[in-house]
Amino acid sequence: MDEQDFPALxxxxxxxxxxxxxDYFNALKLYLFLLILAAFVSxxxxxxxxxAIGSVxxxxxxxxxxxxxxxxxxxxxxxxxxxxAESVKTRTWRWVMKAEPYNKDVSEDQAKREFLNDLKAIxxxxxxxxxxxxxxxxxxxxxxxxxxxxxxxxxxxxxEIYVKDRIDNQSHxxxxxxxxxxxxxxxxxxxxxxxxxxxxxxxLYRIKEPTSELPIEVVATAASAVLTWVQAKKHNELNSSxxxxxxxxxxxxxxxxxxxxxxxxxxxxxNSESAFSREHTQWTARKIV
Length: 289
What we know:
Blueprint: H1 8-44, H2 49-72, H3 74-96, H4 108-125, H5 145-151, H6 155-208, H7 216-233, H8 235-254, H9 262-286
């Protein structure tokens, strides 16, 4: 199953979350860039009235960005959207795998109604997100044909689909994200060291030449901006968290060999989805990407 085969609510919440995440980090990048630019203008043209006005204007824009972040709270939309998307995804996998609570001996119409009621409950519990959810025909339906087809497959086929499209997919995602954040953490660490070293060298040179004009404040502002960005992205924490999750998922996959019948599949899916939910709950509590 691909993501377009999931309920429209999943795709809508996922889209809203990604958009809010991009808005948040784009606003933060602009804020930090304008701070550095304002410091540079102030240093380069210390006696120029127009430069002073420009610096004031830049700081007013940064103030506006801070107010926008406080009022709009894109990070809340980001996390709420992710929470809804992950909840829907978990419910969807349980439904298509005929795992509890969708393994009752009822008609398929009744099973569909129970699943739709659970989706309504998820949406009702996250009404604050409703203003940011969109629906277009390309987002799909509440229950796709692929979901129905998968649910109607033999249990062995469903197990194969679950291992491939859920467990392996999650394992690869966490592994790639772990490696990416490891590289970015090293890159930003080196950049931070360079800026701090440059600031120290400039300060030492000023001691030797007190009358020299050096962009120490600009470098210091840039170093602070890098620190703020690193704290926001949390690359080191993400690297550790995602690496641990990837290892746990590998262990989960190993348990699939013990599935020998329909009831075993239901138990396996429940345990697997519970593990994924724990990871997501910890992710939400720490508020990391």
